[in-house]
Amino acid sequence: MTIKESINKYAKLLQNITHIPNKEVEILIQYLLDKNTIWLHLNYHNEFTEEKALEKLVQKRAQDYPLEYLIGKASFYGETFLTQEGVLIPRPETEILVEKSIDMLKNIQGKKRVLEIGTGSGIISVMLALLVEEIEIIAVDINEKALQLAQKNANKHNVQNRISFIKSDLFENVIGEFDMCISNPPYIANDYVLPKNVSYEPSNALFGGEVGDELLKDIINYTSKHNIRYLCCEMGYDQEKPLKEYLKKFDTKSIEFYKDYAQFDRGFCIEFKTK
Question: What sequence ranges are listed for the domain Release factor glutamine methyltransferase N-terminal (predicted)?
């Protein structure tokens, strides 16, 4: 069986899982052969010798198991990051959070100190380290597996000297002063039923409490209390109204809520009045 015939055969098993079944089978073949897209297209009519391994991967993907876990990587902000089971998969929407935070950091002259709460695979901190000059980042998480993966991603992108990864439950082990706090925290209500593909990801990176916004409120409170000028966070699509109400008790200079690529409410950025 040729590569092209294998793609056509196994894509049929993924038609109800993804809108790009042929493309996903190609990605799995590239992963198995350690080849790029150009090589694949030039060798469509060559014999494919890894059908058993491909079948195994496709059967797992057919159960809605995430493609990013199968191939061990994901694209974010035009870069490739390592992924693994037990750590949240990067989402394109988080690119907006990175962009918003970069815009705010431009207002700070000289060295910038940033605290990331819940770093996961490290994508936010790594991109900030790549894109912002004179930056020092403390990135925390409660998940040891996530911290190990984040360190690998920092090493991969050669920014390990600009980020310190620390195991901490929110701010528990955080010391020092910061210009910005940034976070994509768990913000889904505990009783929400996840889509099957998302259910493979770690629950402690998804569920934020009975209502869902509890951790967001903790982060807002901490940022204000510790005189941190800027805060950028992701949030749930239905959380703008309660968070706007909660923010009335804080002394803020500006508050911006923003939408994602699908025009759902997705996050907010705050400038606090600092002392």
Answer: 8-72
